[in-house]
Amino acid sequence: MTPEDSIDSLEAERDAFIKDWTATSQLLYYTVICVSVVTLPALIFMFIVLRKYKKSNYYHFLCSIMAGNFILLATIFSNVISDRNVMLFAGILPGVVVCKLSAFLVNTSSFFVHWAWVAMYLQRFLHVFFPLRAHRAGDKSKEIIGVLFAFSVISQLWTPILITELSVGADESSGTYCAEDSRIFGETTLKYLIFFECFMTFFLPFVLTVITDFSVLFMRNPCTTQNAFTMISADEIVQHQGEHDVTTDEKSPLKIVHKSKIMFDMRRRNEAIRRCLLLATVTLLLNLPNYSLQLIDEFYHFRESNDLSIRRKFVRADAIVYIIYLLQFPTVPLYMYCLKTDFDRTRS
Question: What are the chain's domains?
Fold first, then answer.
């Protein structure tokens, strides 16, 4: 192969890469538009609907989770719109500032939402197994949410420092994207920083969420019998009329309820827990490909590979996993609506 043929082949490969990058950008653009147009109004609608359930123990957590998802998706939506020649920020903010700001909002919102799920499920665990202690502790939801928000902001302060606007090709005319600048701390430090970030933002909170949900689902008895009510039906009282000593010694203090009420409450609780577990699992599966691919890229640098064929494959894979990632947002208002039906049945 002559040098001229080699140059032509390289140019053709570069053109093919730019073509793939442009095609995937268009696909992601329309996907973000469709998901945002459907989900953002649905989240606003659920904000309004859930206002009448303020007395619920989970109200503040649910609203904060929806607010985090709203900010996260709205940031992605505005960032995509601004990249498509709409120029919302033209002449106001430089591209690098928009890149840093959007990355900070996305990372902070993701961190907050994932840990808010953990806090809400942990609160439910305490209410199920330590009801009197949870009641005496009072409703600490607002304080917990405030601490989570502050911790989320502090944990993402590195984002505006390391993330910047990088060029796809030799210059910005070929396109730009937001990514970490390895020249600041070095590639090795950046690798472990991104690994720790993914672990703390995604993997750890979802593992804790699933563990907490499984514990509530499969642990039938309270963790402690001290200061806990024993619920007993009227049928049991009739059955043990001649066993006064057993009733008073082994089942004290008592809370007498109808047997059907006990079965209904247990069934409703298990259904709600299974629904939460299903949502946590679905969200985990929808987030997992995107986080995994980004983490792998930090160690193997597929995005910046000298082999353009590898970069083309990465661009396609990145678009696929990001579309899967976007599918999690419509599940949030749907899940909130299912919770609304649970609240309605509880109040009836």
Answer: 3-219+268-347 (1.20.1070.10)
Q: What is the DSSP letter of 178?
A: E
324's tokens: 């899967």
pLDDT at 253 > cutoff 80: no
Q: Return d(Cα 55, Cα 261) in angstroms, integer.
A: 22
Structure tokens at 28: 């992601």
Helices (H), the chain: 3-49, 59-81, 95-129, 131-137, 141-155, 159-162, 182-185, 187-198, 204-218, 234-239, 244-250, 259-300, 308-326, 328-347
Question: Which of 22-31, 80-89, 124-133, 331-340 is predicted least confidently?
Answer: 80-89
Do the beta carbons of residue 76 and residue 36 sit within 8 Å? yes
Letter for the amino acid at 87?
M
Question: Which one has a higher pLDDT value, 71 or 281?
Answer: 71
Beta-carbon contacts of residue 224 (< 8 Å; ≥ 6 apart): 129, 130
**Over the stretch 47-68, which tens digit does the pLDDT of each residue have?**
999 888 887 778 889 899 999 9
| CB contact at 8 A, 283 and 328 | yes
- Which of the pair, 88 or 265, is modelled with greater confidence? 265
Distant-in-sequence, close-in-space partners of 146: CB < 8 Å, separation ≥ 6: none
The pTM assigned to this predicted structure is 0.81
**Distance (Å, rounded) from C-alpha 124 to C-alpha 48?**
23
CA–CA dist 117, 287 (Å, integer): 14
Strands 254-257 and 230-233: parallel
pLDDT one-digit tens code per residue, 29-53: 999 999 999 999 999 999 999 888 8
The answer to whether the bond into 41 is cis (omega within 30° of 0) is: no
Neighbours of 307 (CB within 10 A): 10
- Over 70: is that where the pLDDT of 285 sits? yes
